[in-house]
Design a protein that fits this description.
By secondary structure, this protein is α/β, with parallel strands linked by helices. It has 12 helices and 16 strands. It has an 8-stranded parallel barrel with strand order 3-6-7-12-13-14-15-16, surrounded by 7 helices. The protein has a two-stranded antiparallel sheet with strand order 1-2. It has a two-stranded antiparallel sheet with strand order 4-5. It is globular, with a radius of gyration of 19 Å.
Length: 384
């Protein structure tokens, strides 16, 4: 197909923001910060994505509170000191392409932290421990038992997310995305596995969603109703235990999130205890392996009305991306690993220079990040 025939390159609104095409760079941990402050590598990375033709960039995983840090090289938006370098990144993106939108993902790691003891106590909705097999500072398993948050601490986290959104707006971002997936704090509140509370923030589905709606209300009040607020939403914990979060409850949560006024919903799943790391699935070789969250999208799209649904999960080919959009089961397609290897993949698709990403789904960009930051390790070593 020619570019003019592809839905993939038609503009679409997210709230009051017009995105030039339907390709989203999904947020990830870039590993390009010290004490939360990003560096020039971060600026260059996102400028390259803008030049490469993506419509919406979601910058990854900025912690909103000092004890919300997950790894030592994680970006932060917890203090005003983080703003100048973020502003340099947003200016670089908008200068590279004024039509590219740049949103910052706001996060709190909750109980899923790798070291960083000096950043404060590990907290979570409930004191549900686990053995972390993803500890970046030590090459061994480590048992983590978080402290159950008090009501005062929950209120502080809500205020921290709101303040972080205001800082993101001051830094020039076009909106924010709340990270409520992958077992981090907001999804810990959503999941009955990690949330055993009996107060207003636990028990019923409505109570477990409460913290997210309070954050949204605060951001709207502080940043304005027109400034886009997106959410990355957990749809399945992928745990073989009861209770845990899965459909149909996650479909009901998506309906509540949409009715509350979020501007777009990106769906994902999995957490540190998941038996299969479906959030970073390997061996994506055929079209049938792609878009592995599509079954969830089909059900969620039916209940969220006109709120755009962003589909992530193993999308590698132009054929699958276009097919998803034409089916009406999602409004945007979201990729991360393919754009690490080929930041210009959208332009290649647009110019009919490629039909499939070069990404070999090895996940070494994640597992071998270290202190070098996000990059395609396979490409660096001449593989694939």
């Amino acid at each position: 197909m020619m570019e003019k025939d592809l839905m993939l390159f038609r503009p679409q609104k997210i709230g009051g923001m017009t995105v030039k095409n339907r390709i989203v760079r999904s947020a990830t941990h870039e590993g390009m910060a010290k004490d939360g402050i990003v560096d020039e590598r971060y600026v260059s990375l996102h400028k390259g994505l803008a030049i490469g033709g993506v419509g919406l960039i979601i910058g990854g995983f900025a912690f909103v509170q000092r004890n919300g840090i997950a790894t030592r090289t994680q970006a932060g938006i917890h203090s005003d000191e983080c703003i100048p370098m973020f502003r340099k990144a947003t200016e670089a993106v908008h200068k590279a392409d004024k039509d590219v939108k740049f949103v910052l993902q706001l996060a709190h790691c909750g109980r899923q932290r790798s070291g960083c003891k000096e950043y404060g106590e590990i907290v979570a909705p409930s004191a549900v421990g686990f053995v972390s097999r993803h500890h970046f500072d030590k090459k061994k398993d480590i048992e983590i038992v978080p402290k159950e948050m008090t009501l005062t601490e929950i209120e502080e986290v809500v205020r921290s997310f709101i303040a972080a959104a205001e800082r993101a707006k001051r830094a020039g971002f076009d909106g924010v995305q709340l990270h409520a997936a992958h077992g981090y704090l907001l999804s810990e509140f959503l999941s009955p596995y990690t949330n055993r509370r009996t107060d207003a923030y636990g028990g019923s589905t409505e109570n477990r969603v409460r913290i997210i709606l309070e954050i949204l209300d605060g951001i709207r009040e502080r940043c304005g109703k027109e400034w886009p607020v997106l959410i990355k939403l957990q749809v399945d914990d992928f745990l073989n235990v009861e209770p845990s979060l899965k459909m149909p409850e996650s479909v009901e949560i998506a309906r509540m999130i949409a009715e509350a006024g979020f501007d777009a919903i990106e769906i994902s799943g999995g957490m540190y205890e998941s038996l299969t790391l479906i959030t970073i699935k390997t061996n994506i070789r055929t079209p049938e392996d792609e878009a592995y969250f599509l079954p969830y999208a089909r059900r969620i799209k039916k209940v969220i009305g006109d709120v755009p649904l962003i589909l992530v999960g193993g999308i590698r080919s132009l054929e699958v991306a276009e097919g998803v959009l034409r089916s009406g089961e999602a409004d945007f397609i979201s990729m991360c690993r393919p754009l690490i290897r080929e930041p210009d993949l959208p332009n290649k698709w647009r110019k009919n220079l490629s039909n499939k990403a070069e990404c070999i789904s090895c996940n070494r960009c994640f597992w071998e990040m270290g202190y070098k930051g996000l990059r395609c390790v396979a490409l660096e070593k001449g593989e694939g």
